[in-house]
Amino acid sequence: MNLPLRSTCISLLIHAIAAATLWCLPLTIYERFRPTGQQRVTAISLRLASPPAPNVSATTLTLSRVDPVSQAEPLPPERAQSLTPTVPARADVPMRPADLPASVQAPPTPEFVSVRRPPPPELPEVKTQQQETLPRRMASQSTPPSVDIVPLAQAVGLEPKTPADFSANRPPQYPASAVRQRLEGTVTLRLRVDLEGKVVEVEILKSSGHQTLDMAAAEAVQQWQGKPAQRFGRSIASEEILPVRFRL
């Protein structure tokens, strides 16, 4: 906003405030300040004045004529060579590491020291020791006596599939009294077997020489029951010869 216009607005605002103040005052105040003598009227005129124009000085520019520049003629080669400054060759001087700036110096190369590890010690070979078969110690007590039963087919000379089979039965027990007396011998029995393979009768054909051994064999075989003898695939009743051997 221009300065004259701004001052005009301020003046109008002051007059408006003064008029409003006078308008609000009561009539008695007007009468109090009313002059009794001759009144003098002062006229206030308001005129808008335009700001003064800035002083602008006119400057006259005189343009001088410039002649075109003619293209320069090339110099002869001999003169051009004479005008070329001769630069002395710079000898390559190796720069020492101390002359180089700190930012240019290469970092020191670490030295690697080869360390040769000693070979691991050879482990001793562990040979598996085969356990030697030690002979069995003889028992302090005497080995229980054994009772051998000769197969019936071997005793009577029959075919293996024909005679009765009593292999599933327990052999006779060695009498304790015969063991104490160190009695040994073989008793031959004749057995009568029915169709079901049960021994129904026992007869002593040949004694062992000791009645204790004969009776032990006969009483044990009397309780046997096995597979009956067969002929042409059919079960038959038969008589079997059974040797029983007592030995210590």
Descriptive report:
The protein has 248 residues and is an alpha+beta fold. Among the domains are: 3-29; 146-247, Fusion Protein Consisting Of Minor Coat Protein, Glycine Rich Linker, Tola, And A His Tag, Chain: A, Domain 2, CATH 3.30.1150.10. It has 6 helices and 6 strands. The protein has helices at residues 3-24, 27-32, 77-83, 152-156, 176-180, 211-221; strands at 146-149, 185-193, 199-206, 229-231, 234-236, 238-247. The strands form 2 sheets. The chain has a 4-stranded antiparallel sheet with strand order 1-6-2-3. The chain is rod-shaped. It starts with a helix and ends with a strand. Keywords: Cell inner membrane, Cell membrane, Membrane, Protein transport, Transmembrane, Transmembrane helix, Transport.
Beta-strand content bin? 5-15%
The quaternary organization reads as single chain
Biggest β-sheet: strands ordered side by side in the sheet: 1-6-2-3
Summed over residues and divided by their number, the pLDDT gives a mean of 70
Distance between the termini: 151 Å
Estimated radius of gyration? 78 Å
Give the name of the CATH architecture of the domain at 146-247: 2-Layer Sandwich
The class by helix and strand makeup works out as: alpha+beta
What string gives the helices and strands in order? HHHEHHEEHEEE
Shape: rod-shaped
CATH fold assignment of the domain at 146-247? Fusion Protein Consisting Of Minor Coat Protein, Glycine Rich Linker, Tola, And A His Tag, Chain: A, Domain 2
Low-confidence stretches: 128-141, 153-158
Largest sheet: 4 strands, antiparallel
Number of strands: 6
What is the count of DSSP helices, taking H or I runs of 4+ residues? 6
* CATH first level of the domain at 146-247: Alpha Beta
Percent of residues in helices = 10-25%
